[in-house]
């Protein structure tokens, strides 16, 4: 009998060795209440598709609560709304896209953003040159009183680079809006006036 | 009469199992494992050391030389101690038995904590309320429908997702195929937005896999998923674990949200952060003390209390500890709570008490015996 008792603990590792079941599908209720806070937002999304089986690519996707409005430049087509991409435009002459995005805070600061975009263009710029570039944007106030800092990367991107960028940085309350148009130098030159017109039309 | 020859090896094994030699071997292995794990942690991080040395049954040195892991050693020690107790019942002094019983209880408590304790965290900004906590390093693909303040969530574990996996969310009428998945991903936006970029709430156009971080809570999962609603066209959706806004779509007359996020644990109450307070050391930016005033809502009953660094909140098996906080200019303060549910929480206290009681009992019994012998 005593030996049987001694053998019993041998079963213990087997019992302990059983991992907890990890269910493939879990269903639960979640309550999440987020307080209102000053944030930027996109225009109200278009109404849901009327068909019974809406195509999700054209389905409005929510982002934020307040509004930023603009006027679409002539010849440009505004595409479907996407989350956090406040607006997507297709330019008339080249068919390239121009996008407005908004991020919380300053997204690491002005020079960090310029550096990141230069990296995406696969262009390396000396720190001094980058600081000089960051300090010399074309600036104006939009029709809605928003400060716009315009950076034409043609000034820092080598002449033989395949792509360039035209960007606007628009500081908002607690967030930053970015307007970006990518393309070849020629495409950007052709659309620069429309790009500036879009920036000037921004209203909170 | 002597035992049959066939029973002798078994007898010897049982004697070895209850013998003190095995106890000494186990303690020696634990010493080596503790030392080795501590050194390993310096280079590889706490989590990797825990996984390799303290959560493992066998460690393969160099990939093929086996060495007992802590789980194996502790299990053998548990067997050894249990067998000893069972065979020594009525033979050894009560104090010795009580001390060993306390040690056994301590080992069992460790097993319960290891296998059944749940650990997660809850981060709230002032004014925010939530009824779920988030895992430190496990991920889920979640789909939910908002019903007033309540989300009806269906979630699947995503830790082991791989390209080609098919997932089915019946409630939402969605089929999801994993196109790519990274346990740790870096997200990129395209300078020139792509026309065929997957749907994403932040305008992220591509993901790249990154090396897993030493601390797994630093990993951010990401993947591209092909989402096909019943009767609808497939759509490529890019989900990144740091998305600030979830991707929402309308299907079947309801609005559904899709997110790749840390695994959520439902809590039996709703926690609302009312106010966060912190006190700095004079002339420094180091926090001296911080605390959170919270409102706990359970079954329609609200109560207000303060959780501070040495004053956790306990309710229905869950414990909320004040863990950390975050402050950003112009934003409400945020407070983070460590959330634990440990069924064996009290066992270490009880077992320590039993051990102390056993030792005192044994000491007194020996003392009395010697005093009587002198008389």
Describe the structure.
Chain A has 204 residues and is α+β, with helices and mostly antiparallel strands. Chain A folds into two domains: 2-41, no CATH class; 61-200, Protein Transport Mog1p, Chain A. Chain A has five helices and eight strands. Chain A has a seven-stranded antiparallel sheet with strand order 2-3-4-8-7-6-5, covered by helices on one side. In chain A, a hairpin with a 3-residue loop joins strand 7 and strand 8. Chain B starts with 7 loop residues before the first helix and ends with a helix. Chain B has helices at 8-18, 20-44, 46-54, 70-88, 94-116, 347-374, and strands spanning 58-61, 65-68, 118-125, 129-147, 150-157, 166-169, 174-182, 185-188, 206-209, 222-229, 235-240, 247-251, 254-280, 287-298, 301-308, 313-315, 318-326, 334-341. In chain B, helix 2 packs antiparallel against helix 3 (46-54) and helix 5 runs antiparallel to helix 6. Chain B is α+β, with helices and mostly antiparallel strands and 375 residues long. Helix content of chain B is 31%, strand content 40%.
What quaternary form is this?
A: heterodimer
- Give me the number of helical elements of chain A: 5
Basic shape of chain A = globular
Overall number of strands of chain B:
18
Secondary structure: number of strands of chain A? 8
Ranges of chain B with pLDDT <50 over ≥5 residues?
Answer: none
Distance between the termini of chain A: 84 Å
Q: How confident is the prediction overall: mean pLDDT of chain A?
A: 69
Largest sheet of chain B: 6 strands, antiparallel
Helix content of chain B: 25-40%
* Biggest interface found: A-B, 65 and 68 residues
Q: Would you state the CATH class of the largest domain in chain A?
A: Alpha Beta
- Give a short account of the largest sheet of chain A: 7 strands, antiparallel
CATH architecture of the largest domain in chain A: 3-Layer(aba) Sandwich
Helix and strand run of chain A: HHEEEEHHEEEEH
